[in-house]
Amino acid sequence: MKIQSTGFSLIEILVAISLMAIMTVAVAPQLKYLINFQSGTDTQNRLSELQSGFATAYLANMNVIESDAKAEINFGTTGIMGAATAASGARCTATAANFTPWSDYTGHAAASLVNDGYGAPLCILINPQASVQINGVNLYYHTVAFISTGPNSVLDSGTGLDAAGNLTLAGDDIGVLFDGRAFSVNKFNLTASKMKIVSQALEEYYLARYQSDPTRSSSIDYWSNGVNSPVPTSWDSINPGNLIAYTPNAAPMYTGATSDLSASLSLSKDDVTDGYGNILNFENASNNVRSPVNASANMAIPPYTALISTVLPGNVGYSQAAVGVNN
Q1: Residue with the larger pLDDT of the pair 240 and 194
Q2: For residues 292 and 300, what is the distance between their CA atoms, to the nearest angstrom?
Q3: Does 22 or 108 have the greater pLDDT score?
Q4: What is the bridge-based pairing of β-strands 305-312 and 316-323?
Q5: Which residues contact 159 (CB under 8 A, 6 or more apart)?
Q6: Rounded CA separation 73/71 (Å)
Q7: What are the respective helix, strand and coil percentages of the chain, to the nearest 5?
Q8: What are the helix (H) ranges across the chain?
Q9: What does pTM read for this prediction?
Q10: Helix (H, G, I), strand (E, B) or coil at 132
Q11: For residues 76 and 67, what is the distance between their CA atoms, to the nearest angstrom?
């Protein structure tokens, strides 16, 4: 009886192995390319997420961050993001602790943000606080770079963040830059624009009060009803309807009360909120303005003024004056 074999012969197995070896050699470069391509794509996506998330975190915490001039990002109660650097030819050193203070703004857990698409830790470079002057006002900001060491997983010589905030990438390193200067300038411009709107509303109010007074006089300060003033007759105290209080110290223009100055000017909460999220302050009877009660004789005569003020990041005071015009 003849037994029929159902297996492979030795020659068939050797042929199959040879073909597999040839195919592996032929496909390996393409497979490596695809893996590197996917890793590069993942890295770019991670860096974009970090850049976007950090920008959101920075904008929401500028007042706290810019109170610290060191080469770190201080988020206050949630912690400090320090730098994660590396020497040339070495791996970066980021850990979850670098991302914990602000990871919520990315929508990801801090531990998932540590590595690039190649599985290597990221580098984080942070400059000390810098400043730029706009219209005589110092605006403070930080510059931060997030860097992937690319396929070779080590920082290449020449990669770095210089004192001016310029990011240089060498070799196969990949990175994104967060430039706080642009954000700081934009927020200041928004603040200045809002102050201008409030100032115009105040000046229109002053003129309307003057014109509604049958005994109108340029010697009267129409910025307030004069209640609680030591010289009430120097204010708009006789002509009924003035809703602005005598304000010798800076006070918020909005608190939610119906007696708020913002309500008197028909302005919303947003109208009297600066670019950083702070309510603008108002004063009409301090020594910072021209008023009948100013301690300086030269400042106690018309044209009377009122002051709108706020505090910018870095504890920088900023104000604009509204001038009472009678025509």
Answers
A1: 194
A2: 5
A3: 108
A4: antiparallel
A5: 88, 147, 168, 169, 170, 171, 173, 175
A6: 7
A7: 35, 20, 45
A8: 10-60, 62-65, 96-99, 180-212, 261-264
A9: 0.84
A10: strand
A11: 10
